[in-house]
Amino acid sequence: MKFKILKKLIVLCLILIFIINLPIPVKCEESTSKQKVIYLTFDDGPAGKVTDDILTILKKENVPATFFLIGEQIKNQENLVKRIYYEGHSLGLHSMTHKKSNLYRSNKDFLKEMLDTQELIYSTVGIKPNILRFPFGCNNTNYKICDSMIDLLHENNLKIYDWNVDSGDGAHHSAAPSTFIKNSKSEKDRVILLMHCSYISKNSVKALPQIIKYYKDNDYEFKAIDSNTPEEYHIIK
Ligand SMILES: [Zn+2]
């Protein structure tokens, strides 16, 4: 009889030891989840009040962006280029003329326009940007990017950045700001958002605060493109 009680006690003890040693579930923070990144990019500046207004919004919201500049527009707007640079944004190359007929005649013509723009920016703020965006994109109605162009640009230490989300403000600059906001919302881990800061991009200015709010609300980190940012382009065979 006594032995039976002892046996029960031992079993009970073993159960207790087992329960005590059970790991306590701990709620872990999602430390392994990747940080989502948004690169706001503005093409076709510097362009007077619109570019200036965009800079004011970026300053208020305390977020960096990237500006792909047209060389021919820099003259008499040097102070605007300086403002972009001194407020912590990236400067990129977007050709001298922004004309398809000039740019896509040959690789050499394209490269020359980019290097001329680089030189102009250098004489304005003292840095030589080596990030560039193809006017109308790497693959447009007149041109498709090819290996020989990529090699030529890389040999000249230039890096290529298309976009992977389009606000739509280039094709339809006077569309409602709500359309640009809707187009700009993405759930990708890495968003390179195409926007414009040209003279006609007034509705982009109106859309920008809500676009920034969306990405802040969704825990994205805002970054400016620099030469360490992985390139973005696709070759269409
Ligand atoms: Zn452009």
Automatic annotation (TrEMBL):
The record places domain NodB homology at: 36-223
Name the source's superkingdom: Bacteria
Looking up Gene3D superfamilies in the UniProt record yields: Glycoside hydrolase/deacetylase
The record's section on PANTHER family has: GLYCOSYL TRANSFERASE-RELATED, POLYSACCHARIDE DEACETYLASE YHEN-RELATED
Query: Can you name this protein?
Result: Polysaccharide deacetylase
What organism, scientifically named, is this protein from?
Clostridium weizhouense
